[in-house]
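Methods, example record. To illustrate the input and output format used throughout this study, we show the complete record for Acetyltransferase (GNAT) family protein. The sequence lines were provided to the predictor; the line carrying structure tokens was produced by it.
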Amino acid sequence: MFTIAPASPADLEEAAAVLATAFRQDTVTATLVSGSDRERRLALLFEAMLCSGATSSGRVDLARRDADGVVLGVAVWETPDARHSVLDQVRQLPRFTRALGLRGLPRAMRLQRTLALHRPVEPHWYLAQIGVGDGARGAGVGGALLESRLRAIDADGVPVYLESSNERNRALYRRSGFRSIASITGIPGVTPAAMWRDAARSAPVSTVSASTDRRGSAAVDAGLPSPA
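The corresponding predicted structure is encoded as:
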């Protein structure tokens, strides 16, 4: 059994480690972080991302095992009115650099710009990352994290956006009401889908800034990380 609750600042290192495990085979993060120490560097990357605004400009939900409090899964959300702190990002620059390397920082910035081109202009919640640790796959953790936040979002009548690079996961997102609205090009080796979930009790809206055309895996959502 597990319980879903918001993360505190003290939880971010453990949350980052879970995301690093979940995304170690992800094709998009592989364009940013590679090598034999990939998982360690991914943990640094996710911790920097979480510490540079996720808790202040969004929500970080954790699924904790009831027996011992171990974090089984993590979902990182950005609110419709999110404002990213430049100061927080500057403070995390050493961690970003250790994770990505000096050559990796420009690649991360290009990835961020590519993803931003496909973000809808309408205010929305954004599912940035969601992942489940090795010992909890297939136990419904990822689905529970997703549905828990979607219920709260539906109560406010707000749409949701995400990206997914995994077809199996996209099928699961469709069951939760998402639909593909664009194919994201320009990322080496992968073409993620931009996915949109209409606000509860509203007419469909699919205004995006690019041409129209995310519990299966560890990384339940594509979780395309943008470090700034």
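Annotations derived from this record:
The chain has one domain: 2-197.
The radius of gyration is 16 Å.
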